[in-house]
């Protein structure tokens, strides 16, 4: 941390005589200085305030602030679905009547009501008012989740930027929701972690400050309320999508360095650029009562763990790969039971398929993830580049003309025990990884919206309230996208994004887990609606190919067996699509929309049983002509048996629609020549059986590279792994004469070392240099042999036996 920054300590949650508390602001300021606090945030009760009193509060806060103490005015209130909210800032505005509801106009109006005890599911003016009045220049947060049983969960919050991971009232800890904070961090931009300590008198402020309870800490140059380098704008303001604020909550340890936002930029999105990919991650903590352990979580997954024996401080720089997206929350425990929780250290590759929520926390811009009601499509058709179709922003029309309409992948169950529709479930979004070649995301649904929410609309409209756990099943959707090659640099905007080309491969999987025994009478897995454009549906049934006019025809039942395919094409201009059934046998019906149902549809299920369906799909851009059944069949035939494929290490697995290879000794190698016919195809490679705790990498011995940073031979990059230890590698076979790659773990451990974290980072080319480190996160010593599993240029690592103590971190090279 640069020496000019100071760590400031303060309290959020004061209530003065302006609302339900006691004491003048002069008394509060004197008490805060006497207690050694640097800042106090007032969260007065909105139902006890008036606009005039709020203006007086703001004037008092500004008048009594100086270079020793910052006072910030704010208020708390309930919203009309049951959440506890707070608002504050250097000059926070009073909420107008249009964002308030209730008989006294003191309840935050977040979800539209119909006047008959229901919620319409539509938004109110609150979202736009918050973005205009509090975005960046103020702060909006949530707290007391235990006292909000029908409100949004932390993982589902929107139009906000702070949440209390610990909440104290009457001198007692009411809740610690750190686990919920980690879950929220899994979806790319967590809120600022806060502690709210409700105190209602200057005397209680002093007691709370000296109680040993967790308080707020932020780093800044000064306490100047309006300066960009002051505490509010440096640490306590609304965080946007490019932020990682130097702020933490603690009742003991201090975090001097961790937060940061590291973004990898390359010209035109080119991969294999070693120098850009290296991310040094400085870590510095202190604990006057002695360190016990440090845990780093990537979302909710443990990423590193260091154990101590009472040392007062720890300083280390982790050498990580910045192209593999992470959201790393630091948790520090001391010997006396104190804990510090940081804002997430965030990184991604702007040149890849990164996912970063917009600063309103509603969606990530490309709809890979979203809060609130949301689901994935079966397939994705790629847009023409902006240089061809024109630049649009934030939801504007893109260069696509799809044949299909809405693609709804959420199951609807009719059972003897009742009806349940996954579209009426709240969802938990989660980033598994993004890297330079792929995106892996998922959503989980476990809770239902209240039946009085008349319509579930979309993430911007429908907030709640919730009505508790689902009654028949929970639902998890997993979605993967392989990147297509970068073939240029945008003529507009800026130079880091890719200009991609060719056919877009994706993989979609839906898992239903039944929570009770049930007799299912009807199960609709999803549907694809028609669009008013000429187009044809082709289905490979056991009786042969069936071709239907998708705009006009009807079909009572078509069998789609495991491994079969369906496709859409038009003789005119439009985006063709090709889907392979990777799950169980299905029945398709084409009456209104094209519906997908299991075969057989009636199922007797037990609690805990699962039902999956899965599709590999290909979306064709407008400049790749697929105008007939024969055009679709060319791709089906090639993907089944890619011409000239050589699997040199590992073995190919039967995998409809994908090239899937299981590793031999933790790696695979293959060679694949350019297809004889021009297909504009990226072959999606799926590598299974890897260890998510060990670094994975891709060595491209020969293949495609745009060439801004070097040729396509003997180039290396890091590879992300999903929660199941699978890698997703795009093979750009249509853009080069031969593609030959090795994918796997550069360095591996013996079976006793399966739980170790092994980090292998290439740090330079010419000469090739590598960083190798290992961490034992367990409570027991581990003895194992580390050895290389891939032959990489310059990685001269000899097999060696190591004994690592519990919690030990060691740099080996």
What features would you highlight for this structure?
813 residues; mainly beta; 10-stranded antiparallel β-sheet; 7-stranded mixed beta barrel; globular
Q: What is the tally of helical segments?
A: 9
- Look at the structure and give the mean pLDDT: 96
Describe the sheet with the most strands: 10 strands, antiparallel
Given the helix and strand composition, which structural class is it?
mainly beta
Helical coverage, percent range = under 10%
The total strand number stands at 58
Report the C-alpha radius of gyration, rounded. Answer: 28 Å
Unreliable runs: none
Distance between the termini: 26 Å
Percentage of residues in strands: 35-45%
Task: Provide structural commentary.
This protein is mainly beta and 813 residues long. The longest helix has 14 residues, at 51-64. β6 and β7 (107-108) form a beta hairpin. The radius of gyration is 28 Å and the shape is globular. Helix content is 9%, strand content 42%. The model has no long low-confidence stretch (mean pLDDT 96). The strands form eleven sheets. Strands 28, 29, 30, 31, 32, 35, 36, 38, 39 and 43 form a ten-stranded antiparallel β-sheet that branches. A seven-stranded mixed barrel has the order 1-2-4-5-10-11-13. Strands 25-34-41-40-37 form a five-stranded antiparallel β-sheet, with no helix packed on it. α1 (25-34) packs parallel to α5 (202-209).
Q: What's the arrangement of secondary structure elements?
A:
Elements: E1 6-14, H1 25-34, E2 39-42, E3 44-45, H2 51-64, E4 70-78, E5 84-89, E6 100-101, E7 107-108, E8 111-113, E9 119-123, H3 126-133, E10 139-143, E11 162-169, E12 172-176, H4 178-185, E13 192-199, H5 202-209, E14 215-220, H6 231-236, E15 247-250, E16 254-257, E17 261-264, H7 274-277, E18 278-286, E19 291-298, E20 301-307, E21 313-321, E22 326-334, E23 339-342, E24 345-349, H8 386-389, E25 404-408, E26 412-415, E27 418-421, E28 425-434, E29 438-449, E30 466-469, E31 473-482, E32 504-514, E33 518-524, E34 526-530, E35 536-541, E36 544-549, E37 555-560, E38 565-569, E39 577-581, E40 586-590, E41 594-598, E42 603-605, E43 610-619, H9 629-640, E44 646-649, E45 651-653, E46 659-662, E47 667-673, E48 683-687, E49 696-702, E50 715-719, E51 727-731, E52 738-744, E53 747-749, E54 757-764, E55 769-775, E56 782-788, E57 800-804, E58 809-811
Parallel strand pairs: 1-2, 1-13, 2-4, 3-4, 10-11, 11-13, 17-24, 46-48
Antiparallel strand pairs: 1-14, 4-5, 5-10, 6-7, 8-9, 11-12, 14-15, 15-23, 16-18, 18-21, 19-20, 19-22, 22-23, 22-24, 25-34, 26-27, 26-33, 28-29, 29-30, 29-31, 31-32, 32-43, 33-42, 34-41, 35-36, 35-38, 37-40, 38-39, 39-43, 40-41, 44-47, 45-46, 47-52, 48-51, 49-50, 49-52, 53-56, 54-55, 55-58, 56-57
Helix pairs in contact: 1-5
């Amino acid at each position: 941390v640069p020496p000019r920054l100071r760590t400031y300590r303060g309290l959020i949650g004061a209530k003065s005589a302006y609302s339900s508390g006691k004491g003048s602001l002069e008394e509060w300021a004197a008490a805060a200085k006497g207690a050694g606090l640097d800042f106090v945030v007032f969260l007065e009760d909105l139902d006890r305030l008036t606009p005039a009193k709020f203006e007086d509060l703001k004037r008092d806060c500004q008048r009594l602030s100086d270079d020793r103490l910052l006072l910030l005015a704010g208020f708390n209130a309930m919203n009309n679905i049951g959440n506890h909210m707070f608002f504050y800032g250097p000059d926070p505005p009073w909420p107008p009547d249009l964002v308030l509801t209730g008989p006294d106009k003191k309840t935050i109006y977040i979800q539209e009501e119909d006047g008959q005890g229901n919620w319409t599911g539509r938004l109110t003016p609150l979202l736009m008012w918050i973005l205009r009045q509090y975005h960046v220049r103020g702060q909006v947060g949530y707290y007391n989740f235990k006292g909000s049983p029908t409100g949004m969960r932390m993982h589902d919050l929107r139009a906000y930027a702070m949440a209390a991971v610990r909440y104290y009232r009457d001198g007692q800890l009411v809740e610690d929701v750190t686990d919920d904070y980690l879950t929220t961090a899994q979806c790319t931009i967590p809120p600022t972690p806060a502690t709210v300590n409700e105190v209602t008198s200057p005397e209680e402020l002093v007691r709370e400050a000296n109680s040993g309870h967790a308080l707020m800490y932020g780093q800044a140059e000064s306490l100047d309320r309006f300066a960009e380098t002051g505490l509010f704008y440096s640490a306590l303001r609304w965080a946007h999508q490019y932020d990682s604020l130097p702020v933490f909550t603690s009742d003991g340890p201090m975090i001097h360095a961790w937060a940061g936002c590291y973004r990898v930029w390359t010209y035109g999105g080119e991969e294999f650029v070693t120098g850009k990919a290296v991310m040094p991650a400085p870590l510095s903590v202190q604990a006057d009562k002695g360190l016990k352990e440090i845990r780093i979580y990537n979302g909710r997954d443990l990423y590193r763990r260091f154990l101590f024996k009472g040392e007062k401080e720890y300083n280390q720089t982790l050498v990580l790969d910045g192209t593999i997206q992470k959201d790393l929350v630091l948790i520090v425990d001391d010997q006396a039971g104190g804990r510090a929780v940081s804002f997430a250290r965030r990184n991604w590759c702007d040149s890849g398929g990164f996912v970063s929520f917009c600063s309103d926390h509603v969606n990530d811009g490309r709809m890979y993830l979203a809060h609130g009601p949301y689901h994935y499509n079966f397939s994705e058709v790629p847009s023409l580049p902006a240089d061809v179709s024109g630049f649009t922003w934030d939801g504007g029309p893109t260069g696509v003309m799809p044949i299909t309409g809405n693609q709804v992948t959420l199951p609807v169950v009719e059972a003897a025990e009742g009806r349940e529709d996954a579209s009426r479930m709240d969802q938990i979004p989660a980033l598994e990884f993004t890297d330079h070649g792929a995106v892996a995301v998922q959503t989980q649904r476990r809770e239902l919206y209240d039946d009085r929410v008349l319509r579930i609309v979309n993430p911007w409209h429908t907030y709640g309230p919730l009505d508790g756990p689902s009654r028949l099943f929970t639902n998890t959707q997993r979605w993967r996208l392989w990147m297509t090659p970068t073939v240029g640099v945008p003529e507009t905007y800026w130079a880091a994004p890719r200009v991609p080309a060719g056919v877009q491969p994706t993989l979609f999987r839906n898992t239903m887990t039944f929570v009770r025994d049930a007799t299912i009478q009807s199960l609709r897995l999803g549907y694809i609606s028609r669009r008013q454009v000429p187009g044809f549906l082709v289905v490979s049934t056991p009786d042969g190919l069936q071709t239907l006019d998708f705009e006009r025809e009807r079909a009572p039942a078509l069998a789609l067996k495991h491994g079969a395919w369906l496709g859409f094409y038009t003789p005119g201009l439009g985006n063709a699509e090709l889907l392979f059934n990777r799950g169980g046998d299905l029945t398709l019906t084409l009456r209104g929309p094209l519906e997908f149902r299991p075969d057989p549809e009636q199922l007797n299920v037990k609690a805990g049983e699962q039902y999956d369906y899965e599709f590999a799909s290909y979306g064709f851009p407008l400049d790749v002509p697929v105008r007939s059944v024969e055009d679709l069949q060319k791709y089906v035939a090639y993907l089944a048996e890619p011409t000239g494929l050589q699997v040199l290490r590992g073995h190919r697995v039967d995998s409809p629609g994908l090239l899937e290879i299981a590793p031999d000794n933790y790696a695979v190698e293959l060679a694949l020549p350019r297809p004889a016919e021009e297909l504009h195809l990226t072959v999606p490679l799926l590598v299974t059986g890897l260890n998510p705790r060990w670094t994975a990498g891709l060595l491209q011995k020969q293949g495609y590279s745009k060439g801004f940073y070097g040729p396509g031979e003997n180039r290396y990059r890091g590879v992300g792994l999903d929660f199941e230890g699978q890698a997703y590698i795009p093979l750009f076979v249509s853009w080069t004469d031969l593609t030959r790659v090795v994918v796997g773990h550069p360095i591996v451990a013996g079976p006793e070392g399966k739980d170790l974290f092994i980090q292998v980072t290439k740090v330079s080319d010419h000469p090739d240099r590598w960083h190798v480190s290992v961490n034992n996160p367990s409570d027991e010593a581990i003895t194992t042999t580390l050895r290389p599993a891939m032959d990489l240029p310059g990685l001269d690592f000899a097999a060696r036996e190591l004994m690592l103590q519990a919690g030990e971190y060691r740099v080996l090279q």
